[in-house]
UniProtKB/TrEMBL annotation:
InterPro entries recorded: GDT1-like, GDT1-like_CS
The protein's name: GDT1 family protein
Main subcellular location of this protein, as a coarse class: membrane
Membrane-crossing residue ranges in chain numbering: 32-52, 73-98, 157-181, 201-221, 233-254
Subcellular localization: Membrane
BP terms from Gene Ontology: calcium ion transport
Keywords recorded for this protein, A-Z: Membrane, Transmembrane, Transmembrane helix
One GO cellular component, as annotated: membrane
Keyword Zinc set for record: no
Bilayer topology: Multi-pass membrane protein
Family in the record: Belongs to the GDT1 family.
Coiled-coil residue spans: none
């Protein structure tokens, strides 16, 4: 037992040493290789922001309620399909804003002013502050409102036919229901902000992973999540992440 413990400590120390060396090498690598590391950082940022934005959101409850009376796989397909489509739309809008800023730059004192990056910072700060204020207020009415809106949204949703026909009908209905519900949502604007200031590939990959994970949790037991996980804690984590990534984006503007 003691030998296994020392073996574990030795491997852990070696792993930490190698990780530090690799990190140092990555930070010092030339501009040809550096973007590959940057994409992974952006991917993780997008994943964390989207995942914590979606937990307890209206689309989360829609997926959970639909999964309670339909096939989980069918509901997941429709929900994730809509979120993936919305992610693509958000990234396209963000990159369009970025390219317009490149073509028609805003100059301040003879220096190009990256208005797209500053807009992204402002948007992330806004979501961070509002999310933290909601968490600090301790008001559960917002969560209840999200649940009630989700119940109202699916109240008239009915599958038609049987077998494959019913499954296809549910997927299509779920897709459009979630797509409409997600339009103008916090994660929608968060994705636009990230795409305007970061690599679109990293944003798409991270956002899709975040949506997939959150949707999977909703389908597998979203109604039980509130029993074990505090919505207040989720809000604090999400709000903090918004502010952290706003700070990172702001620093990168001048780096």
């Amino acid at each position: 037992m003691l030998g296994q413990k020392w073996h574990f400590l030795l491997v852990s120390s070696l792993f930490k040493h190698i990780s530090r060396q690799l990190l140092l090498q990555n930070l010092l690598m030339d501009s040809y290789l550096f973007p590959s590391l940057r994409i992974w950082v952006i991917l993780m940022q997008a994943f964390l922001l989207i995942f914590f934005s979606e937990l307890g959101d209206k689309t989360f409850f829609i997926a959970a309620l639909l999964a309670a009376r339909n096939s989980g796989a069918v509901v997941f397909a429709g929900t994730f399909g809509a979120l993936a489509a919305m992610t693509i739309v958000s990234v396209v809008l963000g990159r369009t804003f970025h390219y317009v800023d490149d073509i028609l730059p805003f100059r301040l004192g003879g220096t190009d002013f990256p208005i797209d990056d500053f807009a992204a910072v402002c948007l992330l700060v806004y979501f961070g502050v509002t999310t933290l204020l909601d968490a600090a207020s301790g008001d559960e009415l917002k969560i209840k409102d999200e649940q009630e809106e989700a119940e109202l949204a699916i109240s008239e949703l009915r599958g038609n036919g049987a077998g494959i026909t019913a499954a296809a009908s549910t997927v299509i209905s779920t897709f459009f229901l979630v797509f409409v519900a997600e339009w103008g949502d916090k994660s929608f604007f968060s994705t636009i902000a990230l795409a305007a200031a970061s690599s679109p590939l990293g944003v798409i990959g991270g956002a899709l992973a975040g949506h997939a994970f959150a949707t999977l949790l909703a389908v597998l037991g979203g109604s039980l999540l509130g029993t074990y996980v505090s919505e207040k804690v989720i809000a604090y984590i999400g709000g903090t992440l918004f502010l952290v990534f706003a700070g990172v984006t702001f620093i990168e503007i001048f780096s």
